[in-house]
């Protein structure tokens, strides 16, 4: 949604928005639009929500677009769509490192000190397309997913606009993506949220916590209770792995 917002605020002509269908959400299973669809409706942008992306072929073909901007769409695009025009994908990683669904979270969990945002041309293989631009982002020990997302948008939206302009002018230039160093950022599962102080070091624990902030939070099980952990710092006290104590308003856990 934020990529769409950035393009709209920059004055890019958006004749059509393609989004996933509305889905049931929450305990009451209320039919809920994806954020992109909700934003499009709020701003009176033409919207299509096909169950399968290929169903939008005729509508897209009629528009004769110079390019399609895409970010985290969540479906593999059929060849007939990719053949219509360049599909320009904003992806927040230094490809080929961290292809896949959760590049920022996986990068932070791994303790990377450098990441970035790329604009690439979408191909059938997951996040394997040629690179049009690459901007680097330094990652310090305080960075969390929200901060990296903000930086990726700050750098990525202008880069995406430049790629759209180049496509419209017929001057789009891309470099074949490297095949060495490919890593995959798999979709997050509940097990990825669990902190195990008997297995994880202090650094591993802090990386996991900041990777999951502020979206879903890490989980810590103490006895029969499960706590959601949003923030943590390294302390100088020594505790056995898994041992915990409360000092003032702090919960301290040994790793």
Which series of helices and strands comes N to C?
A: HEEEHEHEHEEHEEHEHEHEEEE
Give a quick account of the main beta sheet: strands, pairing sense, barrel closure: 4 strands, mixed
Arrangement of strands in the largest sheet: 5-6-8-9
- Give the helix/strand class: alpha/beta
Taken as a percent bin, the fraction of beta residues is 15-25%
Mean pLDDT level:
95
Helix percentage:
25-40%
Radius of gyration: 21 Å
Low-pLDDT sequence parts: none
Total strand count, please?
A: 15
What count of helical segments does DSSP give? 8
Shape estimate: elongated
Q: Span from first to last CA?
A: 38 Å
Structure description:
- By secondary structure, the protein is of the alpha/beta class.
- 29% of the residues lie in helices and 23% in strands.
- The protein has 8 helices and 15 strands.
- The chain has helices at 2-9, 35-42, 57-63, 79-82, 103-109, 145-169, 190-193, 202-211; strands at residues 17-18, 23-25, 30-32, 47-48, 68-70, 87-91, 99-100, 114-121, 131-138, 184-185, 194-195, 218-222, 225-229, 244-247, 250-253.
- The chain has a 4-stranded mixed β-sheet. A 3-stranded mixed β-sheet has the order 11-12-13.
- Helix 8 links the parallel strand 11 (194-195) and strand 12 (218-222).
- Helix 1 (2-9) crosses helix 6 (145-169) and helix 5 packs antiparallel against helix 8 (202-211).
- The model has no long low-confidence stretch (mean pLDDT 95).
Keywords:
single chain; 255 residues; alpha/beta; four-stranded mixed β-sheet; three-stranded mixed β-sheet; 15 strands; elongated
């Amino acid at each position: 949604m934020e990529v769409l917002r950035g393009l709209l605020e920059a004055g890019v002509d958006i004749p059509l928005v393609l989004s996933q269908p509305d889905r049931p959400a929450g305990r009451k299973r209320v039919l809920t639009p994806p954020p992109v669809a909700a934003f499009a409706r709020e701003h009176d942008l033409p919207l299509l929500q096909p169950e399968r992306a290929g169903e939008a072929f005729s509508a897209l073909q009629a528009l004769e677009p110079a390019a399609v901007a895409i970010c985290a769409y969540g479906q593999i695009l059929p060849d007939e769509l990719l053949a219509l025009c360049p599909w320009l994908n904003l992806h927040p990683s230094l490809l080929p490192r961290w292809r896949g669904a959760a590049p920022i979270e996986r990068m932070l969990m791994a303790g990377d000190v450098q990441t970035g945002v790329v604009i690439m041309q979408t191909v059938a293989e997951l996040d394997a397309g040629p690179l049009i631009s690459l901007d680097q982002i330094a990652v310090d020990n305080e960075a969390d997913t929200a901060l990296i997302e903000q930086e990726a948008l700050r750098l990525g939206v202008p880069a995406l606009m430049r790629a759209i302009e180049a496509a419209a002018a017929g001057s789009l230039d891309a470099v074949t993506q490297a095949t060495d160093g490919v890593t995959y950022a798999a979709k997050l599962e509940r097990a990825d949220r669990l902190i195990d102080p008997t297995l994880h070091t202090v650094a591993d624990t802090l990386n996991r916590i900041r990777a999951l902030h502020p979206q879903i939070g890490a989980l810590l099980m103490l006895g029969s209770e499960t706590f959601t952990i949003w923030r943590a710092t390294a302390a100088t006290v020594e505790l056995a792995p898994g041992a915990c104590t409360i000092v003032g308003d702090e919960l301290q856990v040994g790793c």
